[in-house]
Amino acid sequence: MRYLCSAFLLLFAFITTAQRLPRIMAQPNGHFLQTATGKPFFWLGDTNWELVHRLSRQEIDQFLAVRKQQRFTVLQVVALAEFDGLTQPNAHGDLPLLNLDPTQPALTPGNNPADSAQYDYWDHVDYLIKQAEKMGLYVALLPTWGDKLTKDWGAGPVIFTEKNARIYGQFLGKRYARATNVIWMLGGDRPATLTPAEATRRKREPYDHRPIWRAMAAGIHDGLGRNVPALMTYHTWGGGYRTSQEMADEPWLTMNTMQSGHGGGHDIPVWDWVMADFAKKPVKPTIDLEPNYDDHPVNPWPKWDPKNGYFTAYDVRKQTWRSVLAGGAGVTYGHHFVWQFYSAKRPAINPGDTLIPWQQALRSEAAGQMQHLRNLIEKYPGNRLPDNSLITSEIGEKGKHLQACRTENGRYAFIYTPVSESFTVDLSKLSGQRITAYWHDPRTGQKTPAGTIQDRQAHEFQPPANGPDWVLVLEGR
């Protein structure tokens, strides 16, 4: 019987280990991501900032099922949420901390969800991470939103110092050391520094909070243990801030990010930011963590003008496709009423004149279309190089800007065009005896043949009329 029990325990351990998702890390070349098993990983993220603060277990299950079906890979979630996350209980009536103290997480013995005395706030975070893993999803966990550290705007309150940030980081790292589907994301919509000149321009106080973030990162590593690898990044502010500029020398930062955002209007040139990061040393993956939010009012600050309208699925496609082909290791989608999990029981945040319940917003047009970006990238092996020299005609600006990339060996190339206008491509940059071309529809994923070309000269391509946007795929054979 003793041997049977031992065999059973070994089998159970094997099954448990087999169910674990492999950890995510930077590829050896630094530009892209892979699993610990060496398989390329495409970051197709979703902003779910208020998820553990506002959703119940049943609602979490409902949410995860839809995002799995839509082929997302990463959920961006905050532990200490932005909107009264320290003082407003979650859906099960629990707060995360005792006395607003990061060194005192509110923990109770047991974790039975049927017993409110047992099931605490952190049990709820555990539930999300475990359920996401079952669905094959990774959780980019933000330890806190930036307003708990930066006093110049936001609900706050400010509670972090270097000392308690490290202790809080240790708690999180130790608790989730075995959660292989957790990715660490510090920040929370705040720049790490605000120079005196920038502070004067924005009428705020200057600061440098890198020591606090550095302490929190060190605490997470303490809790994880020396032999546990951790992909760690930072969610910065919009308006052109990039981690590669203000945090380039931070040894804990393994992936750069930016936020093209929602306040600067249409067609923010995020492709330029991504390509600039791609060329930087040391080489790190880079990602736009917040492009235009789907159904977000355009330029809502300080007051939204209805004439500006909302960001549409077309706006979302333009920003996401162009950032990825510019060298992004992936991209994050977001819906304005999903990140806040809007429902009629609470006021909407930054609304226009239309309110969409989060359950309905989950199935928006753009949310269903993001998988066609992932599918195309994963279909073709080899690392991508941004290369607009493939285009010998006008590349265009803003809403007409085209973005091209090719694989290192020249076997494949992709060119995204936001408009149904012809453009010319230099085929000499591709390998093989002939070039097979087709149009990939970013709305449906369907293919439309664009011909086979035998010569290696410049060739003009005319997108199909029923666009407006298309992706030209070129295969060297």
TrEMBL record:
Residues 28-381 form the Apiosidase-like catalytic domain. Keywords: Hydrolase, Signal. The keyword Hydrolase applies. InterPro entries: Apiosidase-like_cat_dom (IPR025277), Collagen-bd_put (IPR024749), GH (IPR017853). GO terms for molecular function: hydrolase activity. Residues 386-475 form the Putative collagen-binding domain. It comes from Fibrella aquatilis. PANTHER family: ENDOGLUCANASE, LMO1036 PROTEIN. Residues 1-18 form the signal peptide. It comes from the Bacteria. Pfam families: Apiosidase, Collagen_bind_2. This is Glycoside hydrolase family 140 protein.
